[in-house]
Amino acid sequence: MRWNAIFAALLLLTFVSSSHAALVIDPALPITRRVSVQPIIVSNDNGTNTSAYFGSASQQESIIGLIDSIWAQAGIDIEFFTPNFWNNTFANVGNGTSTTSRPTNDLGTIVNNGDTAGVGNADPNVIDMYFVEIAAGFSDTSENTANGLAFVGGNGITQHVGDNLPGFLGGREVVASVVAHEIGHNLGLPHITSVENLMQSGGSPNQGERLLASQITTARNSRFARTVTAVPETSSFAALFAIAGGIVVIRRRRNSSGL
Hints:
alpha/beta; Collagenase (Catalytic Domain); 5 helices; globular; membrane
C-alpha cells in the first residue's frame, strides 16, 4: 500500500460557481521537467453515472493547455496519458449520501483498490488521478463545481469536475486551477498563505496561480518530475489570460480543510 506513509498529509480544495476571473500566473521558464498523469475515469459498478473528465477533444486540449501554462512557471510540462476506465461504485460515490461528506480515508482506499484492479499506472512515478462523482472529503456538489483531494508528496488524487465547467472558458480555467493545485500537492507542496498563489487553501482572498521560488524548487525536485531536454514553452493558451473571452458566470471561491 504505497500511500500509508503519507496518509496523514491529506489536503483538499474546492471551487464553486459565481463570476469569472482569469488565471493569474508568472512568465514561463524553459521546460526541463515533465510530470505524467494517468487519468482514471470512474463509473458505478454497472457502468452508469460516469464521472466527467475534461469534456470534448477541443475542451480537453484547452484545459490541458491551461494546466501546462500554470506549471510552465516552474519549467514543468504536464503530460496526460490516455484515460483508463473503471467501474467501481465505491470509488465513484463512496458509501454515504449526497448530504454527507465522504471520509478523507476514501482516497487511500481508492488508490489501493485501483492498483489492485490494474487501473492505476504501473509506473509509481506517474501520478494517478481518479475522476469521480464525489471526491474523497466532499459531499455531492453541483455541476458548476470542481474539487479534489490529494496526497502531499505521494501518489494519488480524487478529482471531481462538474459537467458544466468544460463548456466555457471560465469553467475550463476553474478546472485547470483545481487540477494544477492537486498535482502540486503530489509534487510535495502543502497549502500556504500567499497572495495569488496556486497553493492557497480554500477561501483565501486574492486568488491566483503563481508559484514562489521555493515551491518551484520543491516541485522540480519531486520524484514525479523527470528531466527532459529543454524545450521552448510554445503553448498559445497563455494568450487567453489577457483576453476577456465573452461573458461568463463563474467566480472561484475556495473552501478547504486538512488533516
